[in-house]
# Entry
Amino acid sequence: MDDDGLGCCCGCCLLCCACAADVVCNWCTFLIALAAAAVLVAAFGVALPVRATVTDASLARLDLVVVTSNSSAADADAAPVVSVAYNLSLTVQLRNRNWAMRIELAAPLDAELRFAGRRFFDGARLADAGTSVPPRGTEEFRVLAASSSSSSPGGAVPLGGAGAAAELARERAEGVFEVELRIAGEVRYRPVHAGRSSRLEATCPLKLLMPNAPRGTHLVVVQKDVSCY
# Structure
């Protein structure tokens, strides 16, 4: 083979190598762009909802107070007034499962307690609007619920029905107090979803064990890590 043929062959080989390298480079660029797009979609395109958990529940008092009416003939058949005196403290944890977005409260986060389907605690403000939870972070809020009605004996509050009173009496006899904590608010996911908010609602079923103790004894009953749905 003469020099011209050898030079032509070498030139073709170099051209083929350059073309192959260019194809590989283009494929690498495409794959990198695809991976970057997938990461951005996973980070900012899909917002994982907030996870709420009750990490601590302590019951210091739970008394059923029954007040009968006056002994006059007109009131002889009147139903007794049934109230409950309680002192309950809870710790609620909000967990942000997103690894690139922080959570910001767009409205105040409130909590209420329900027993036998009835609300018996006026509610508590857990956090104000603007409170934020960092990515992969958690925030804890304390709920203090206690009966404080000065118009009822012993600071008790009405249960709202004979059915609820019977249920509480049954649970006291069994040594178990079942109550629901309900959380409500609105959240935004930052830095995306500007101007939009999502409703945050969660129900936490609590089952507190009550030791057999005489009336007036200070009870300390703890339940940990209750998932809310």
